Amino acid sequence: MTDHFALEFRRLFDPPRHRLAPLFSGFLYWLAFLLVLEPGNVLRASQAGYALPLGLETVRITGAAVLGATVTPLLTWLTNRLPLTEGTRLWQRALIHLICNVCLAFLLIVISCFLAAWGFEQQIVPSFAEVNSQLAANWTLLVFALCAFTTIVHLVRFIRRKGGVTAATATNAVATETTRGERIPIKTRGRLRFLEQASIDWLETQGNYLALHSGPNTQLVRQTLTDFEKDLDTSRFIRIHRRLIVAIDRIEEMKPLPNGDALLRLRNGHELRMSRSYRDEVVRRWSEG
């Protein structure tokens, strides 16, 4: 149990890492958001008596989308650390998300004013009136856009976790119904032999084969991981990935990763990546052992 609390503590303070996936998805989100608003900008400019240059608008929209994308890794990280779809004190987490979005909206508007002053007005510092005008016109709208993005990330996270838990539960239910022995029959090159379950460290799929790792030796078996899992002792083995099963007593250390996954180091020094879909169950079983 102590290891479980230590893992959760390290996971809470594990620093965020900017990755290409959140940046790219954030860029597409902000690009779509700005393009939806663009017809209104063109209409207002036309009513004011001047047309918006296409090239200038393209640069402005692209730059604004890039600027918005820079905060999406932070929002994704905050969502993973303070999810609104699980746990307790959800209103406190929601309040933290709201405060964060309000501050980010303010910061993005101020930065955009500086960029506009440098790029279009040849000024070092934007005027206070311009910053105040942009805050009055766009702050509420930007807070709404940030909250909408946070909501989307929460929904995606909830759907993925629900699907992963359902798959893991179904796999464990099927495995429990099967009687397991200490030895597993293995057919290789037309010969039948038995492998002691206690000697297996971990298993993984390799194309059409299943690799059984036992100390320094690796045995390839032409069988699927799902079929082989039916003969395994579930009190001894646990799935950590759709391609990996590991012996619980071989786990030496867990190292959390920023996206919710974890890196397992076995007693023989080998490292395996654990999917976040199986993380809670593995932590529970490992801490109980």
From TrEMBL:
The keyword Lipid metabolism does not apply. Residues 184-288 form the HTH LytTR-type domain. Keywords: Membrane, Transmembrane, Transmembrane helix, Two-component regulatory system. One of its GO terms (molecular function) is phosphorelay response regulator activity. The chain crosses the membrane at residues 20-38, 58-78, 98-119, 139-159. The keyword Coiled coil does not apply. InterPro entries: LytR-like (IPR046947), LytTR_DNA-bd_dom (IPR007492). It holds the Pfam family LytTR. This is Response regulator of the LytR/AlgR family. It comes from Rhodanobacter denitrificans.
